[in-house]
Amino acid sequence: MICMKKILFTGTLALFLTVILVGATPAGAQGLLGRGTVFFDGAVARTLVPPAPLPHGGVDPIYVFPGGGADGQLSVAGVGPGDRDYHGGRWAVYTVAFSDGVTPYLLTSDEEVHVAEAAGDIVLTRTPENDVRCPVLR
């Protein structure tokens, strides 16, 4: 009986903390890593969720698609574990918007994001108020 109470308490506490932490996350960050996965170097990588707010504190670039993107589009991490410039997931958030007349297509790496920007297919906007901390796992 005591064990069951402990399990219920622990589960309730975990749910409560998740709701509190997710609720405290900046609005733009809600879709950032909330699914627990991002694209990194063309592959899907897991994240530790929920992301913790870090306004104006990001250094690792991450590209988010608040207006949507192609089917299956996830946020794109610019760096990750094993990269020399990875700072543990202190994400500097850039929003991605497809240009008028461009049909959204899947972007799975920061290289593809930069090629799309150079082609005029997307516009990147730095949104430092939405910076978060959330490590990526390979």
UniProtKB/TrEMBL annotation:
Top-level taxon of origin: Bacteria
Full protein name: Uncharacterized protein
